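[Help] Beginner question about ligand-bound structures

Sorry if this is basic. My supervisor gave me a protein sequence and a SMILES string for thiamine diphosphate and asked me to "get the holo structure". I don't really know what that means in practice or what format the answer should be in. Inputs are pasted below exactly as I got them.
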Amino acid sequence: MVGNESVPTVQLLTPEGERVEHPDYEFTGSDETIAGFLRDMVLVRRIDNEAHALQRQGQLGLWPSLQGQEAAQIGSGRAFGKNDYAFPSYRELGVAWAKGVPPVNLISLFRSVDMSPWDVNETTFHMYTLVIGSHTLHATGYAMGLEMDGLVGNNDPERDSSVTCYFGDGATSQGDVNEAFVFASSYNAPIVFFLQNNQWAISEPITRQSRIPLYERAKGFGFPGIRVDGNDVLAVHAVTTEALERARSGNGPTLIEAFTYRMGAHTTSDDPTKYRLDDELEYWRLKDPIERVAAYLRRHAGYGEQFFTDLAAEADEVAAEVRSQVLALPEPSLAEQFDLTYAEQTPYLAEQKQAYLEYAASFEEER
Ligand SMILES: Cc1ncc(C[n+]2csc(CCOP(=O)(O)OP(=O)(O)O)c2C)c(N)n1
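Answer (accepted):
No worries, everyone starts somewhere. Holo just means with the ligand present. The predicted complex, written as structure tokens, is below.
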């Protein structure tokens, strides 16, 4: 069965917080680094909750939660070097955090007051993409460009570069993703396809979308695929570090399937109780990516309660700061949406904007 856990999966930290060995991968970082990963995950979950609350309070149009996927995003995001570009879809708050994108900038997209308020070149974090899978082609093209510019395989960490593209299990059913795999393979492009298999494409379970585990698909395209426990930040970091190195050194693409679970709704517009059972969520709560790291630090690294209390307090402070930044953003304007779409207005959009303005004005006249 595709959705179950009998498939070979790299794991270095069990849900109980015990370190385990793997023949091919190890995490060599210190306990301090692991505590840093915990801090990242706790803060992004807290910010995510705040954004969710802001949407419920009418401050945002929509919010897609990352809850449950913190280890997949922080483990991979913290493996990046300065020349490793990320192409996100729309749930990558954790990757954005690791890349230094201010959360308010990301959240402002969902208030419809901006389209790309961060500097893509400076942060190496590209624009959010809502058209499922389309950005795998953009990312592959970018990776091919890096290669053509001689930025791969120089054995020079200052120059060698790569691309990592984030997408979901549902996206793998899109033609664009499969075309991206073909081009990346044919051109030996320096790209890591980072698939967060959270097992649900809105209400469509992965068991209905693939007869084989998704990582195995890579073989048919001619590059390696690997499945990692997506709730294990140490394993994700180790596997991503190796795949990035492969890409930068000119050895081509890798597909990483981070097997995880979307603990919240698909977005704030979704009600998952309509299509999945509560016991599934309960089962995955026991595999929570944050709890296992906390358990490890408590039991094996001597971190006391004060550390965790301080971290919770810091998370509340950061969330309060993000909230006040969001509330200081301008009110969204429907008319402005027509100007945010392209750098230069097209005649058709200008026409639509005019029609909208006239329609809105007609209500004024009635009063
Ligand atoms: C091309 C396209 N088709 C359909 C949609 C509607 N849609 C939005 S999210 C989604 C499911 C995506 O699931 P998955 O790729 O597993 O990512 P997840 O949301 O679980 O992170 C769909 C079908 C879309 N945004 N774009």
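A couple of things worth pointing out: The CA atoms of residues 230 and 258 lie 4 Å apart. The pocket of thiamine diphosphate is lined by residues 91, 130-132, 168-171, 198, 200-202, 262, 266 (CB under 6 Å). Feel free to follow up in the thread.
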